[in-house]
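Sat 14:20. Reprocessing the chain from the morning session after the first attempt stalled halfway. Input below, unchanged.
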Amino acid sequence: MYKQWQFWVVALVTGFFGGALMLLIQLALFHLMPEWFSPVYILIYLVPFVAMAFAAVRLRERYGDGVLSFGQAFRLSLITGLITAAVMSVLTYFVYDSLFASALQLRAAQLNAAIVKMDMELDFELMKQRRNMVAQLMGPSALALFYFVMQLLLLPIYAFIIAIFARRRRRDITDI
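Finished this time. Tokens:
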């Protein structure tokens, strides 16, 4: 059976690298996909699922002697997902606040142009309100909060699915 420190090491390491990988995929999609919405952005939300599943399998196979209960897998998946969400959100804030602030402003300007293009009959005051709203939503703190909340909503679903498939109660007869 695994030790408590092994549980936390697996959760922390996998969560950190999962969050960093999410940020890299998000940055690549942000800079390579000029559309303001694309279904490809769903890839960002599959990374925590993969990281959580990897953590459960890693703990079961490497430290748990092939045995992992539903509760252990669920708890490990939730903790790994929370760490992934926190790392992704913090890194998103710092990257877009310091490194890519101009790229974020450019994307906000593109979104404003798309909104004006969709409805050419907007009066100046409504256009100004929408521009301010887009500027607030495309800020580093709003993006970080958005990614964190979205991941928090998906975590229990992911953890439940992973816990179902990662659990093993019995050992093979050759393990005795």
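The mean pLDDT is 81.
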